[in-house]
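Slide 14.
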Amino acid sequence: MRKVQILDVGVHAQRFDHAISQILEWVEEGTPRYVCTCPVYTLMITHEIPDAKTALDHADMVAADGMPIVWLQRRRGFDEAERCYGAGLMRSIFEKTAGTGVRHFLWGGNPGIPDVLEQKLRGQYGEVNIVGRYSPPFEEIGTPPNQEAIDLINATKPDIVWVGLGSPKQDIWMHLYRPYLQAPVLIGVGAAFDFISGHKRQAPQWMQEVGLEWAFRLAQEPRRLGTRYLKYNTLFIWRLLTE
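Slide 15: predicted structure.
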């Protein structure tokens, strides 16, 4: 993996299948790691929230979760760079680990979402080993970490903890909790819990490929996502032009 610096944030340029292979190698090795998925919003918010910047700087993988970032990586000479989307990573890894005994924990989502997500994953991939699921209460991430959360996750001995808290909260959470969790790999996957569970619709593939997924999501949730996309997409373009 090679990191490409984009507006002072290092994002790994890699093929999707290479990202999957690397994560599964880490699971087998058992060495503590965490993976952040980085769309434009996450990249830009690091300039406002120092803890988010620290989390991405210390991540073992910062995956390009947005076509504008992939396009920049390609323009800088990384022709094989591909989008490594949270929901895509989750689907692929569950497919590859079905029947292998790899242990998964689902951490995040609104109440009831992890339960539906588990049902969907079992229905799609069969013998997946989901050893725990939990929808944490909506609250700020405090320090020190919550010991009850640590004990709950560690008691199930997962190999992968899927963290669906939204960015940058999930990135900060993983950086904070990584030293206390025994699972080899933590992966922040943003809205993947909602998409795979069917709670929210995902943009058509063609919109994802041409970088218009943001417009699809904005049309569905204008109040919640209006500032996120209109403000930070504009800032992203402006910063690139003035860099």
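Speaker note: Strands lie at 2-6, 9-13, 33-38, 61-64, 103-108, 129-134, 160-164, 185-188.
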